[in-house]
Amino acid sequence: MVSSMTGFAEAGNAGAGYRWAWEMRGVNARGLDLRLRLPDWIGGLEPALRSRIAQRVKRGAVTVNLRVTQDVETGGVDLDPAALRATLAALRQIEAAAQDQGLHLAPSRAADVIARPGVVRAAAPDMDAATLREAILSDLPGLIEAFEEMRAAEGAALAGALHDQLGTIETLIGAAGAAAEARPDQVAATLRENLARVLEHTDAVDETRLAQELALIAVKSDIREELDRLEAHVLAARELLGQAGPVGRKLDFLMQEFNREANTLCAKAQSTTLTRIGLDLKATIDQMREQVQNVE
């Protein structure tokens, strides 16, 4: 089943005085490019994340953000004595200065004091960094699972679009074959014109050379081989879309082969109808190549 390289997932949890929030995003890339933004005070997080993500994700530029904060609600609070004394001293100075100016201020409330920065601080959580790391990492499988589910959903839509485009290519291959079969008179006329051109420039005809020239002209006008290869490429692409695991690179290479055959068909066309079909093929193949860039 095709998987897209585009995806997003988020998760969060809390425990023993901490809260943490995960965010995982993915976009297309040639290989696996992991970009981690983690708290540097929790040792051992980065190697653990890189190893576990690389086991499940094979391609894409993947960014993982982790925010960890102390949880005031569950961890409790402490008063900072120094900050409290400084705040009270500042309030007394303000009130004294106001009295000197003949101003009457409303009495200060405890809530006003607590609201001052630094007076209240979160209580020290009762979890060491190693235990916190393991608690945080326990959320990782669920995060990756949600990320992969979104990429699979994107991949299913992507596979549907690619199958539709392959159907268009099959239709164009059939049209090219019919157009090629309908042009024997035109090919014969082209052969006669080229033969006359050869005879104009020589007094004696070398039958061997003439046979070679005629064979070369016939080969240059025959597109059956290109159509056969295009049909084989369509079958190969459909097989890849049905396989499990990363197939993006194989599909990308196959699109180059599609494009090569379409270019050759255009070069051999020698008719307006075949040229138009060849250009439609190239346009469809270009659209597929853009879609394939997002396949893992």
How much strand? 5-15%
Average pLDDT confidence is: 84
> Which stretches are low in confidence, meaning pLDDT under 50 for 5 or more residues running?
none
The value of Rg in angstroms is 36 Å
Helix and strand pattern: EEEHEHEHHEHHHHHHH
The N- to C-terminal Cα distance equals 10 Å
- Read across the widest sheet, the strand sequence of neighbours is 1-2-4-3
Question: How would you summarize what this structure contains?
Answer:
With 296 residues, the chain is α+β, with helices and mostly antiparallel strands.
What does this structure look like?
The protein has 296 residues and is an alpha+beta fold. It has eleven helices and six strands. The chain has helices spanning 45-56, 72-75, 81-100, 110-114, 129-137, 140-181, 184-200, 207-221, 224-241, 248-268, 272-292, and strands spanning 7-15, 18-27, 32-37, 60-70, 77-79, 120-122. Strand 3 (32-37), helix 1 (45-56) and strand 4 (60-70) form a beta-alpha-beta unit. Helix 6 packs antiparallel against helix 9, helix 7 (184-200) packs antiparallel against helix 8 (207-221) and helix 9 packs antiparallel against helix 10. The mean pLDDT is 84.
